Amino acid sequence: MALFKLGKQRNDEMRSVVNSSKTLLANIRFMDVDNPVRTMAITSSVPNEGKTFVAANLASAIATSGKTVLLVECDMRRRSMSRALGVHAQHGIYSVMSKECDLLEAAVATPTPNLYFLDSEPRIPNPSDLLNSHRFTRLIEQARNMYDYVVFDTPPVGTFIDAAVLGTKVDAVFMVVREGFTRKAEMVAAAEQLRKSGCNLAGAIMNYCELSNGSYSYYYEYYSRDEASSNEGPKLTPVAQRPERKAAAPAGSDTEMATSVPTAPPARPARGSHATKPAEDTDVYEQLAEQVYDASRDEEF
Questions:
Q1: What CA–CA distances, in Å, run from 249 to 253, 260, 269, 298?
Q2: Region 48-62: what's the mean pLDDT?
Q3: Under a CB-based contact definition with an 8 Å cutoff, are residues 178 and 156 in contact?
Q4: Is beta strand 39-44 parallel, antiparallel or unpaired with respect to 108-109?
């Protein structure tokens, strides 16, 4: 996935984000054809690497492919997904777990057809305990039965243990690594913590990569389930022959682009159904990019 600078080639750069998202989705789909990854957690080793940006755009790529997807806010201490998507919910994770409302009522439609969002309430005490509860496990299974994919945005591994806890309950965990920003020791320590928790650390997503002048993309490496569960753990090695790095834009500056989600929300799918309405492809995917940028220019994902 690529964060990118805004300039004269803005439209081309938006398309590069769309293409990177679709390539990432294709890689995930082909990881294990017999046991497809349908529930996944997106995390990072430290804050401001772009995990929320990656999670939102991956979910958008899934939705525009015609599959239903539920994007879940599990970074409960620093909630930013609602603002990035431009949607607001009356109910959240805790309401569903406490049976104040059901999942279908709490999950709200976003401007992207087939993409739904489940927020978390503010000031939830002990989020890691909540994620480790039997009720949250049942919520995951319910979401899995209602949607084709479920994507969880989680806190950085080096800050809280939430991703390691949730990682044992989902099909795969992907760790976002921001080029020119993340220290190798932090990345290795985060990968080791995820491995020791027993989760399937399925891959690393290199974010904010500059391939050439004005051209941004991402590197993606994945590991088989055997490699991820081996004693050595996944080897998060740098991609060979990577171009020379240039200084990344300061995190949170207005040179960074947020998630691209388009306009007017569709009707919510019927209970227990997967209303797979094919979405407009690239055009729909890019319509709200500028609006989301304006709403999130002060946010750091």
A1: 7, 20, 40, 14
A2: 93
A3: no
A4: unpaired
Question: Half-sphere exposure of 246 toward its Cβ, with a 13 Å CA cutoff?
Answer: 13
Mapped onto helix, strand or coil, the DSSP state of residue 282 is: helix
Instruction: Give residue-wise pLDDT tens across range 235-292.
Output: 333 333 333 433 443 333 333 333 333 333 344 444 444 444 444 444 444 544 444 4
Domains of the chain: residue spans and CATH: 10-296 (3.40.50.300)
Q: Which of 153, 134, 139 is nearest to 76 (CA)?
A: 153
Q: Answer for the pair 206, 20: CB distance below 8 angstroms, yes or no.
A: no
Give the C-alpha separation, 22 to 61, whole Å: 6
Residues paired with residue 14 on neighbouring β-strands, in sequence order = none
Could you read off the pLDDT of 122-141 as tens digits, one per residue?
A: 989 899 999 999 999 999 99
40 pairs with which residues across the strands?
A: 151, 172
Q: What is the pTM of this model?
A: 0.71
Strands 69-73 and 149-153: what pairing? parallel
| CA–CA gap between residue 50 and residue 212 (Å, rounded) | 20
Give the Cα separation of 274 and 245 in Å (integer): 43
Q: Which two tokens stand for residue 18?
A: 């769309």
* Residue 117 main-chain phi, psi, to 5 deg: -130, 130
Alpha helices (H) in 168-238, listed in sequence order: 184-197, 225-228
Torsion over CA: 240, 244, 250, 256 (sign): negative
171 token code pair: 């099909």
Q: Which of 268, 238, 207, 146 has its CA nearest to residue 21?
A: 207
What's CA 110's distance to the chain center, in Å?
Answer: 15
